[in-house]
């Protein structure tokens, strides 16, 4: 102490940090926040961020992936908790009552994790969902998106569009997979510009974002035994099943069938 | 001795029927949580027989009761939890009550506020009731969930029903954790059609009992409800369950009639008309064909062997 993370590190999952008693500083590419007792902040996968701690007495840090919540609690992250993706810190300090409430859930999660039961993951996912619901209840009642500033946030808007599109695909409301060009057109910017901004701010190419999302959607559809692989590939906008299989294998190392068998065991 | 059979299906209606207080925070029919000790039931208390359209979870940190779900009697004491599916004949008898919670919620409630929860219910298996015994420290945990749910139910916070649904799922998970030590097998594709068929069939019989309809639905109707081909439905039902659709329906119908013969004093003619038998002779023949006994003989036989003061001849489960 004091301890700082290396410059701009990125994690591959969501994280949520609840500060009961600690001081420090949290910065993203665009903003810097002071960490005081009662601060609650989070990060999404592949977000550049930096953390510095002056002292730590009581802090809870949770990391989880979108897939974990979808598999064990059936949560559509973007639909139910949009703030996780679009914000990085709660708008105000939490008061003591809320803090004790939230930290109680964190402690419970810690307790369940030590147990050895077949339903461990389901219960953790359930508790995590409750934690997020409480956060939503206390801080983001009626939330739809970040407050608009003058310059529209291209990255946020892109992620939002992406999420919405994949939700529609999964529900079968859309049949065509959107391409980089379409996402650029949705925001009224040029393809190349969108490409540069996304690559610069997130460190990933647009096509990577799209591919990752496709895999995630495919995985969650595969876990539902009521869809055939053919149906899934059409639903996600692939014209040929063989193309879907190749694509899936390239990104995950498994064929869709293997994945389904594995997740059913 | 036989508790009367009612046609009431909704939870609030059943409270009103028993002339128990319906608290103002119970403002909807598809979810309610009640602290039973606040109801002020005179003990011992015997409830009438209901045919609820909702799921029920009864949590007893302190108390003794016996609940009857169809033909199974659950003897409950302190630290027990009972989960009951809808569309069953349900009656309860409380002999002592220190602290207990009654949670009722409908399929519709979950579907509306937490769609993913429906899968969780499916995984509870097909038994009508589940009873579980918990360690004292676990029951404390469960009680905390109940109190959280109660707090949530009485106040008006945003997203309260989502939180409640989440808490209900937590309870179900804990019950399942207690029930199975092994990981359950995942559902096959066809099972959802079969489960839906069984659910619809049970619902049909509940509606008959409550007098909403007299038509016993046929395979054609069930196939139509799910937009399936008749042949396809009958094939998957008999393949996955080993019983044909008609066998399911006849068996259910006979069981319902038997229940009424055994547990009520309804005249034979009334029972026959209830299920749409216009000809009493046909009803006798039908019953005799499927059970090898005439209905009158069956009723007399049941009454004769029922000793006064016992829970008739039911399967008794000690938790």
Automatic annotation (TrEMBL), chain B:
What range(s) does the HTH araC/xylS-type domain occupy? 203-301
Q: What is this protein called?
A: HTH araC/xylS-type domain-containing protein
Listed GO MF terms? DNA-binding transcription factor activity; sequence-specific DNA binding
Q: In this record, what's one Pfam family?
A: HTH_18
Q: Which UniProt keywords apply?
A: DNA-binding, Transcription, Transcription regulation
Instruction: Please give the organism.
Output: Flavobacterium subsaxonicum WB 4.1-42 = DSM 21790
Gene3D superfamilies from the xrefs? Homeodomain-like
Looking up PANTHER family in the UniProt record yields: ARAC-FAMILY TRANSCRIPTIONAL REGULATOR (PTHR43280), TRANSCRIPTIONAL REGULATORY PROTEIN (PTHR43280:SF32)
């Amino acid at each position: 102490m004091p301890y700082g993370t290396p410059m701009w590190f990125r994690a591959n999952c969501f994280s949520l940090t609840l500060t009961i008693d600690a001081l420090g500083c949290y910065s993203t590419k665009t903003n810097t926040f002071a960490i005081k007792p009662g601060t609650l902040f989070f990060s999404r996968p592949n977000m550049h961020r930096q953390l510095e701690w002056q002292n730590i007495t009581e802090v809870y840090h949770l990391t989880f992936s979108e897939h974990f919540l979808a598999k064990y609690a059936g949560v559509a992250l973007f639909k139910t908790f949009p703030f996780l993706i679009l914000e990085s810190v709660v708008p105000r300090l939490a008061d003591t009552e809320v803090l004790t409430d939230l930290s109680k859930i964190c402690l419970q999660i810690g307790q369940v994790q030590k147990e050895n039961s077949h339903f461990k993951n389901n219960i953790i996912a359930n508790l995590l969902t409750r934690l997020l619901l409480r956060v939503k209840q206390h801080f983001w009642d009626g939330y739809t998106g970040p407050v608009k500033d003058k310059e529209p946030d291209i990255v946020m808007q892109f992620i939002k569009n992406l999420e919405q599109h994949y939700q529609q695909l999964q529900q079968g409301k859309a049949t065509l997979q959107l391409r980089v060009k379409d996402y650029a057109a949705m925001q009224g910017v040029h393809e190349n510009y969108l490409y540069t901004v996304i690559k610069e701010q997130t460190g990933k190419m647009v096509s990577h974002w799209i591919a990752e999302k496709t895999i995630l959607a495919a995985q969650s559809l595969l876990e539902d035994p009521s869809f055939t692989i053919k149906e899934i590939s059409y639903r996600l906008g692939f014209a040929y099943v063989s193309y879907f299989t190749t694509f899936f294998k390239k990104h995950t190392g498994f064929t869709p069938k293997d994945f389904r068998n594995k997740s059913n065991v | 001795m036989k508790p009367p059979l009612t046609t009431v299906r909704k939870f609030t209606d059943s409270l009103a029927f028993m002339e128990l207080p319906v608290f103002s925070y119970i403002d909807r029919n598809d979810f309610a949580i009640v602290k039973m000790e606040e109801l002020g039931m005179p003990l011992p208390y015997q409830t009438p027989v209901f045919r609820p359209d909702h799921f029920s979870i009864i949590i007893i940190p302190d108390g003794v009761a016996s609940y009857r779900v169809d033909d199974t009697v659950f003897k409950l004491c302190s630290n027990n939890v009972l989960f009951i599916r809808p569309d069953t004949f349900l009656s309860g008898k409380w002999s002592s009550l220190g602290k207990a919670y009654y949670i009722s919620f409908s399929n519709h409630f979950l579907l509306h506020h937490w769609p993913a929860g429906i899968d969780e219910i499916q995984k509870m298996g097909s038994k009508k009731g589940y009873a579980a015994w918990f360690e004292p420290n676990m029951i404390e945990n469960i009680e905390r969930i109940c109190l959280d749910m109660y707090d949530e139910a009485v106040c008006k916070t945003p997203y309260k029903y989502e939180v409640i649904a989440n808490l209900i799922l937590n309870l179900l998970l804990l019950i399942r954790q207690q029930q199975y030590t092994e990981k359950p097998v995942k559902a096959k594709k066809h099972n959802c059609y079969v489960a839906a068929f069984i659910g619809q069939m049970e619902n049909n019989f509940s509606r008959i009992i409550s007098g909403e309809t007299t038509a016993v639905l046929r395979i054609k109707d069930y196939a139509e409800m799910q937009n399936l081909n008749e042949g396809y439905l009958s094939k998957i039902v008999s393949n996955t369950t080993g019983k044909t659709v008609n066998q399911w329906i006849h068996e259910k119908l006979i069981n319902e009639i038997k229940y009424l013969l055994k547990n009520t004093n309804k005249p034979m003619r009334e029972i026959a008309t209830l299920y749409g038998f216009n000809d009493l002779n046909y009803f006798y023949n039908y019953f005799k064909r499927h059970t090898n006994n005439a209905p009158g003989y069956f009723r007399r036989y049941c009454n004769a062997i029922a000793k006064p003061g016992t829970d008739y001849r039911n399967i008794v489960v000690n938790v």
